Amino acid sequence: MKNPVHEQIQARKLKARLRMLQHAQRVSGNVSQTCRFFGVSRALFYIWKKRYEKNGLTGLHGDAVILKCPYKTVGQLANSSPM
Predict the structure, then answer these.
(1) Which of 13, 32, 42, 47 is the most buried (most CB within 10 A)?
(2) Domain count, the chain
């Protein structure tokens, strides 16, 4: 059973990410200004931009995964115990 609150939150995140990408392209033309306006880092902006260019709107779903250990997969990190 899907959680409607979780789906609503994900939909809001998707809209915000899309607005951010559109703002950089159409309004400001400047990534740094857009990131300051939306309160995100440039690194995160480029993660979302890359995912959007590769997968379209489906790429904006979910959270950005940043691996802290380059030798482990996402599954291994999820199954490991916290320090």
Answers:
(1) 47
(2) 1
